[in-house]
Amino acid sequence: QVQVVESGGGLVQAGESLRLSCVVSGITFTQYAMGWFRQAPGKEREFVAGISRIGGTTYIDPVKGRFTVSRDNAENKVYLQMNSLNPDDTAVYYCAADPTTRGISPNYYTYVYWGQGTQVTVSS
Predict the structure, then answer these.
(1) Closest CA to 45 of 112, 106, 124
(2) CB-side exposure of 69: number of CA atoms within 13 Å?
(3) For 88-111, how does the pLDDT look when each residue is reduced to its tens digit (9 = 90+)?
(4) Backbone angles phi, psi at 45, to 5 degrees
């Protein structure tokens, strides 16, 4: 049984930092690209950042320079370090696993395993 579990969300003030963690079990972790998505109230789920099987990374423009995605293959974990948070970053953040893309896909439909999400709220 595959499990994807995020943690690390919370309520912070603008300018502060959070580190999200995601642990995956039940798959061969190194065979999956991993992505972070977020969904704000009333908005569609959007790709935020991803990391390929071999550690390449990509980010959407609004988070470039502020967010860093990394993975620990020995621990089956992926992280999202979020610095200089602002209210526009408020959303539920999801971790997801993609078995087919050799690089990094920004498309939600290529990700087959998803976590339950962790809430990030940034106050101004």
Answers:
(1) 106
(2) 27
(3) 999 999 999 999 888 999 999 999
(4) -65, 135
d(CA 36, CA 114): 10
β-pair type (118-123, 10-13): parallel
Element (H, E) at 113: strand 113-114
Residue 40 DSSP label? -
Torsion of the alpha carbons at 58, 53, 29 and 109, rounded to the nearest 10: 60
pLDDT at 80 over 90: yes
Cβ-Cβ contacts under 8 Å for 41 (sequence gap 6 or more): none
